[in-house]
Structures are given as structure tokens and as C-alpha cells.
Model the fold of this input.
Amino acid sequence: MDMTVLSDLGSAFVLPALLSAVAAYFCGCFNGAVIVSKYILRDDIRTHGSGNAGLTNFFRTFGGPLTFAVVLCDVLKAVIAIWAGMLLFRQMAADDAFVMALSKYWAGLWCLLGHMFPCMFHFKGGKGILSGGTIAIMIDWRIALVVWGGFLVLAVCTKYVSLGSLWAGASFPFATWFVYGEPLILALSAVIGGLILYMHRGNICRLLTGTENKFSVHRKKT
Done:
């Protein structure tokens, strides 16, 4: 992989990057928890629990088989966003390994921004763990192994999903550097990981004060 590829492409890089960003952002805006709760259950998830439009809050509040619809939505939108980004960048530089890797990180970043700050839902979305985890799988299995492995170990052992999520965000740039070792890709991975950590700032405070809720397979009764 060589960053000189981008300098050689010049302005040809701009249009695919813009189209990929727009497509990925609007894919991310299709928040499964908001769509299912607001338009199927008629009870916006953002008015319950932590107020977060994410899978954990949805499961704790509603539970049931519709949780799988939320999972499916948040996974598929990440897959579509990455595929769209790869397709657009491939037209620019065939199958150059560096450009293809860059396209995944670029599209992944904008998909997460759409998930976290969806324009169609007043910029109040989720924290990006499920979609982010899917993006990690789409990028490279080794990165996914580090991110998901640590997440599962911490979440299962401590029952704090947020602790596993913090591992995912913090470990993502380090795993990226190990696999790719490219400054531009590392910078994008740091932004992605930083966004994950930023969205969990409230959880960090609660973990430090011992007031964070532990996860249970039994949803809270209302």
C-alpha cells in the first residue's frame, strides 16, 4: 500500500469520496432502534431508559423478537455503506489494496456519523457499537477479532456492555495500525474510535462512580 496512489489520482479522488460520504451517511441514518420503536411500536426508544437509540437500550426497554429487526437494520446498513464505498472507489483505482482499505474506513466513518447523528431523527441516534462492529468485520478479520474479542470478554465477565464498548473504540486504532500501518488510515481509525469513546462519555462517568447499569438478559419491567 502506498499513499502516492492518492497523489497520482489527484482530483479524481474527490467525487468518489464525496459520493461515498453522502451514501454512507444516509445509510447510517436508518437507525433500527428508532425506526422499530417509533413507527412499529409507536413508542420512541429515545424517551425511555438512557434515552439512547441503541440496541442495548431497545432490548432493556422492549425486548422481544423485534430486537432482531434492530440488529438486522444496523448490520445491513453498515454492510451496504461499505460495499457502496468500495464500489465507488474501485471505479477510481481498480483494486488497489490501499485505496480499497481507505474506502472502507472512509465509508465506515460516515456511516457511523449517520447512525450517531441522523438528520432525519433530529441528530439523536445511537452509540455505534453494533454498526461499528460490523464495519470492523467488513474491514479486516484481524481487526474484528481484536475489537469483538475484547468486547465479548469484558461484557460477559463484567456484565458491563459499556466497558466492552470502550475497549472496542480504544483498541480499533491500535489494531488498524498493526494491520495496515498507514498514517491516513490510522487517522481515520482514530476518528472512528474517538467517536465511539465520545458517545460513551456518560457511561465512563457512571463506571467511575459505580452507578453504571449491568446488562441482563431479562429486560426491565415497565
